[in-house]
Structures are given as structure tokens and as C-alpha cells.
Write a structure and sequence with these properties.
Elements lengths: L9 E9 L2 E9 L7 E6 L9 E5 L4 E5 L4 E6 L4 E8 L6 E5 L13 E4 L4 E8 L5 E6 L7 E3 L1 E3 L3 E2 L5 E8 L6 E3 L2 E9 L1
Antiparallel strand pairs: 1-2, 2-7, 3-6, 4-5, 4-7, 8-11, 9-10, 10-17, 11-15, 12-17, 13-15, 14-15, 16-17
Amino acid sequence: GKPRGCNAAFSASTLTKDGSLTTAYVCAFSRSGLVHRKVRFSRKDVGSHGPVCVYNYFAHLIRCVGRGGDFSTSIGPGDAAYYIVAPVGPSGIALFGDHGKFVSMGKERIPSVRESSRSVTAEVIFARGEHSVKLFGHASSKPTVTVQGGSAGAVTFNRNTGYFALHVSPQANAPYVNVDGNQIRRIEEGQ
């Protein structure tokens, strides 16, 4: 991305697209070891036209940006920041994806996402030997989760921040299928 003004941090971004849903990944670096630098981007800069939620990967904080708003913060001298930007769809849920992964909504883990006014449905892929994946996101109320082809643990929900997380697992006896030379199992998780 292009820095905005001389006090701006250097930033770069990339996207994961699935139909009308776009998740962005934004890296920002302070180019100075002496002063704080601004990090700023609009929803349009990261491929979204509606409201988004921004997850600060290193600080583990979520900030939502409504229509017409920009995300703006600052980073300290010599610091770096990493943000995952998820759209808030008709369901009111922003799904960030696989917790702890830099590209949390990457197609190797979450090949498809569908959203309606009442739910978000994500297909989740497991490699051989993987037994669970922690998914996370933001919602205004605690999501109810259903899983096809596997199971879900309890949903952790923070009413003050909107953060939610849960572990999903494939059925133990689910067969592996060969996709591009990789043995995988799939489940569908809905919220």
C-alpha cells in the first residue's frame, strides 16, 4: 500500500476472496526508530464496501469499522503490526478464520464460505493427523454452531468485545479423500 503522508507507516496488503466475501491481511511497519507512525486504511482499500472488523494479530484486539469509516491507529517507533480485516455480512458475523494463522481464511483451510441473513457456513479442511482447528470471529451475540461431518466444542464468547472462538473437529471415522495429492477430511461449520 501507499503511505499516506510523511508520518505514515509503510503498509502492504493481500486478500482472500470467496464470492462476495473478501478477507484482507494488512502488514504495517514503522519506518522510524524514533517516532510513532500512523496506520490508516479505508474499507475500500482492503476490498470491502460494507462494515468490517479488524483483528490486531499481535495485540489480540478487535475494532469494527462501519459504513463510511476508516481504520486508523498508530504504531510505536520501530514496531510492526498485522491486521486481519473481515467483512461483517448480513448475518452480523465477521469470521476471521483459523486462529493463529497469518492467512486465516486461506483456501487451504477454508475453501468456501457462504453467508445469509441468518448464518455463516464455512467449509473447513483438515490434513492427515489434524484433529481440531480453532475458528474465531466477531459477533454482537454468542453464535450458535452446527457442524456437518464433525463436531464443535463449546463457543467462547466475550460480550464486551464480541470475540468468539470454538474448536471444530472432523468425525474420527471420516474417510480421507485425495485432493491434489493431499489426503484431507472436510466438515461444514455453520453459525
